[in-house]
């Protein structure tokens, strides 16, 4: 069988994009580019809050992967969307009509991308739709259901209760999950059977051998030991709660505790504190330098289907401290023995104090995490699982004459 023609459909795409689902889509597209004829279909947007066009439309390449970008039909009205979300997600308004309006307001609506698939769905043997949440999945999946794989990145966030997502989970031929916890949630909420479910997950590359924590501290003026948080700085990612917890921890430690470094773009106002360092979105070199120098990596999000930052921390032998509200993060921590988890500010402070004051214990926990990543989470395993999934879907749909692009 010739290499399957595979389209990855994702709301944003690029090396500058700061988002877990988007990073997963890019990692998979690059991983499979030698096994399949890969094309990424995406919008011109960079900012998920507005969906304003940023990249030029048309064909380009990102790290050797063909990318087709389509303009967004219109930017999101943030105030109107937030007001509608409060009513819909709060339960005051429910039902098909208002949920369709909510989905349209959330976006991104991208009629050019939808038309590209609608005019000839068979131009691709397999269509991989990444993340269930946004309008691109809702609009695309009915067109390509028989040849679709959904990577839902599902977690217990408020929209999961909406009935509009029942069709999203019912449509694809296969669903590929990042963890057993995510897969069980899909079974419980959407009745996804074992015949359509595959648990694959992701891997991470080994850390650069020259990663240097001292270089990071000097570059960004971080003079004290620190806990590190990597990812978008956003209340929905637990960032505001993390700052409140860390402020209480610092006050209780009377100057002997860890500083907090937060890497990533911020969509919220950050306080000015001597213990807080927020250099923004940094290079890969800078990120790995920060990981190499961290006492621990904190994962404050209550909503995760997989944490790449957690895997990267363990690849450096750095222990993690996760929000216990996320079953996925707790499950990853239990399976690896590479991290602790907290349920409130007091437990957060206890975790940080334990790791900061007992370096041998912190090193032992970090080593367990690194062993887990090295022995159980390889890219070759992920690649083999995805090759099987692509072949399964491609062989199940009628063959078609390749269409022009």
Account of the protein in words:
Helices cover 42% and strands 16% of the residues. With 405 residues, it is an alpha/beta fold. Residues 400-405 have low confidence and may be disordered. It has an eight-stranded mixed β-sheet, sandwiched between helices. A six-stranded parallel β-sheet has the order 11-10-9-12-13-14, sandwiched between helices. β6, α6 (165-170) and β7 (174-177) form a beta-alpha-beta unit. The longest helix is centred in the last third of the chain and has 18 residues, at 359-376.
Structural class per helix/strand content?
alpha/beta
Q: Please tell me the overall pLDDT.
A: 94
Most strands sheet: 8 strands, mixed
Number of helices: 15
Shape: globular
Number of strands: 14
Measured distance between first and last alpha carbons: 21 Å
